[in-house]
Amino acid sequence: MTKLLKIALAGALILGVASTTASADVVKGQKLFIKKFKKACGFNGAKFAAKHSQDEWEAIGVDGIKSELLKICPKLDESKAKDKWMQHIYDFSYEYANDSGNVPSC
Length: 106
Description:
By secondary structure, this protein is mainly alpha-helical. The protein is built from five helices and no strands. Helix 4 crosses helix 5.
């Protein structure tokens, strides 16, 4: 019985890690920022992410990231900021916030 329990727990752990990795893609957010927003914003993703701390990005959340992006980058055309990209932009911004100690390569 304990062997079955260990297998079930290991499977649950693997699924949990896999689903977290699949939904949170910092690298994709970085690439999206460089390709889609850098020119309109006039600065790179590192400067964008450093506009807020992790707590502030958390308060803004995925639901508010698009409006924050448009506020920080007023020259950005709203139609260029696709909703499906916002989770990745949020993950990138949170990961490289001004208090995170992380520095992106963009």
